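Entry 0007
Protein: ABC-type polar-amino-acid transporter
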Amino acid sequence: MPVRDDAKDARDDGRYADALVVLRNVDKHFGALHVLRSIDLTVGRGEVVVVIGPSGGGKSTLCRAINRLETVDSGEILIDGRPLPAEGRELAALRADVGMVFQSFNLFAHKTVLENVTLGQVKVRKKDKRAAERRARELLDRVGVASQADKYPAQLSGGQQQRVAIARALAMEPKVMLFDEPTSALDPEMINEVLEVMQQLAREGMTMVVVTHEMGFARSAAHRVVFMADGRIVEETTPDQFFSNPRSDRAKDFLSKIL
Ligand code: ADP
Ligand code: MG
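Output (structure tokens):
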């Protein structure tokens, strides 16, 4: 059984009745490989959950399942009380509700920065183009790249591209933001500019699931740390508890290697 503390009790006694993301008993295989094993995870509104763990443990698959970029074999995933839609317009709306920022920046290479942040608003959220552009410029300003609006992604640094990716996701007015190692592909001097944008979002009360090895971010922004290994949630606790007194051998071993 996974080691857990009050996080689990909080769920059981209904304090998470207002949960935004719920996974119940989720399983996923890739062929013979069992990548998600009986995953139970609840993310409350406004909560910041940092997911940590060794490579290959299933962290990306977990994020992709929440955004339905992967289907799961069994179990239940609810976003704001509703099961993930299978396809069509509902799926596009779900993807907008669940913003995702990947390790690789994933911007549209042949669109300008402004177009990257405008397109989804018009296509999925059905905003008119002028309003969408206005909103895009506000968001680009907020993430500190307003002056890059008319450039193409390849003309930007990695840190700038990742901030545009965040602005693009925010433009959809998501209910929750998923970040899958958003700073792992960045040169060291660009990591902080992206983490600062994420810190700011956390302070503003955005619900966030963040896969990262940035322990400073986890310590200062996370309400909860989820440690995942071999497809399981092994430990789920506060950042203080996790970093000062991890309980599972798997987490102790992991921390001894990265800290
Ligand atoms: P993490 O993000 O924690 O490193 P992943 O979720 O990417 O872990 O991967 C979990 C396991 O699933 C790994 O063994 C990985 O090789 C495997 N895997 C991930 N995606 C696929 C896929 N599309 N097809 C087959 N195996 C996959
Ligand atoms: Mg990964």
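Curator remark: Residues 188-203 form the longest helix (16 residues). The two ends are 26 Å apart (CA to CA).
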